[in-house]
Amino acid sequence: MASGSVTQATPGGNAGSRPVVTRFAPSPTGYLHIGGARTALFNWLYARRHGGKYLLRIEDTDRARSTEPAIDAIFDGLSWLGLDGDEPATFQFARSDRHAEVAHKLITAGHAYRCYMTQDELAAHRAKAQEERRPFRLLSPWRDADPANYPDAPYVVRIKAPRDGETVIDDLVQGQVTVRNEEIDDFVLLRSDGTPTYMLAVVVDDHDMGVTHVIRGDDHLNNAFRQLAIIHAMGAIEGWERPIYGHVPLIHGSDGAKLSKRHGAIGVDSYRDDLGILPEALFNYLLRLGWGHGDDEIIAREQAVEWFDMTDVGKSPSRFDLAKLQNLNGHYMRVADDDRLAALVGERLGASADRALLARAMPVLKVRAKDLNELVDGAAFLFAKRPLVFSEKAASLLTDEARERLATIHDRLAAEADWSAEPLEAVLKALAEEQGLGLGKLAQPLRAALTGQTTSPGIFDVLVLLGRDESLARIAAQATASAGSQV
Fold first, then answer.
1. In chain numbering, where does the motif 'HIGH' region fall (predicted)?
2. Does any domain span residue 295?
């Protein structure tokens, strides 16, 4: 097989070879959720793995619920994850005339028909099926009506779904799935106002975009059999080929229940803006939700492209675990470029934050943080203004005895000419030995005086980052304060 091509079974039983084209087709009725982001990722990876194309389509036919802010949020989230489409996005609503054109071709060729059944008639058919305790399958009297007898009345266009035999899908994830054709009803292609249904629009757009692989959630598996009824009909008319399907199990919460906001089902933008997650961490985490490569957990983008295959996607729902995502994010924080992290933290701290200082601080700050929010909290002492605000625990360390020690520390440090970590450490260790104390007895109140907290980077790193003048000023302020007060 040539690189970038696939061989697939077509309705006629012949083999066709086409370049790989995948697509991600969200509805812009809300944010880009975590399941949608994973679907986009799998489509992007499969296209990259096979040297093909990955396309975007905005399915905005629901005009009442589709919004521009939602569209912007989807594009923004995809771009942040590095999953931009290879071509400008297609907007489904703008193609309504093309969808209707295909529906009328199906009517002309005898594969679809005008149905004039009223809502009351449809309700009566449903009620009868319920009475007889059988599934509702529409048997429209207009299916085989002579077009010459069509009345001048509102109608919908329905597909003539096959009544006999079965339809088989060799799904990349689910394996072979078979449905008896008698279970597929004559579903609507065009509504009575002439607008296309989702089922028709998806099939036409996939064909016109050259999509070879439809990779999506397994909640669409039943739709695939209905969509194949259209594809097979257009195959008979114009030789349309069926795509290869891969229906991915949905994501559940850590407790196995349907994913909800309490599990972390929030927009991709919230992972970035609210939770402080890096895009490479979310990319890696989504990759491992339902797909794996041995015991590998840390997988770079380039490695993912090389390894990814739909046959390695599991058939069972994956479980979203926010704690695992945060731990993974901690890894990517530690290996991230310091200047980049400084810029991200600087954005959160505001214009007054010294980016150069942040960059110098990153090697000691990032090892303690699992997200950008913790990094911001860790960096806050660098830009705190005197008088410092003290945590309750930090204030409790600043006893009269501790303040006396701070006064001595101040004098010893002030006499040190080399304001770097090793000499400062030597000064404090010598003082601790001189006073018969453990180093912690000096370092704990010193940390409180310098940062207002009981946790921070190493105390000597703190002194270096704050600089000589600011460090001595903060120590002096607490050395001269009375017990129970901070200045």
1. 26-36
2. no
Indicate whether 450 and 348 sit together in one domain: no
The alpha helices in 240-391, defined as continuous H runs, are 268-273, 279-287, 301-307, 322-335, 338-349, 355-365, 372-379
465 in any annotated domain: yes
Task: Find out whether 197 and 188 touch, Cβ atoms under 8 Å.
Answer: yes
- Helix, strand, or coil (residue 55): strand
The torsion region of residue 9 among left (phi > 0), alpha (psi -120 to 50) and beta comes to beta
How many CB atoms lie under 10 A from the CB of residue 10?
A: 15
DSSP character string of 147-209: GGG--SS--EEEE----SSEEEEEETTTEEEEEEGGGS---EEE-TTSPBPHHHHHHHHHHHT
pLDDT exceeds cutoff 50 at 14: no
pLDDT tens, 180-195? 999 999 999 999 999 9
Residues 124 and 50 in one domain: yes
Domain presence at residue 52:
yes
* Amino acid, single-letter form, for residue 171: D
Of 383, 413, 444, the residue at which a domain comes to its end is 383
CB-count exposure of residue 185 (10 Å: 0-12, 13-18, 19+): middle
What are the phi and psi torsion angles at 465 (to 5°)? Answer: -65, -40
324 part of the active site: no
- What's the whole-number mean pLDDT along residues 224-235? 98
264 band by pLDDT with thresholds 50, 70 and 90: low
Q: Work out the average pLDDT over 24-28.
A: 95
Q: Which of 261, 324, 370, 385 is catalytic?
A: 261
Q: Is 370 annotated as a binding residue?
A: no
Q: Are residues 378 and 396 in the same domain?
A: no
Q: Domain count of the chain? A: 3
Calculate mean pLDDT across residues 398-420.
96
Domain residues for 54? 5-251
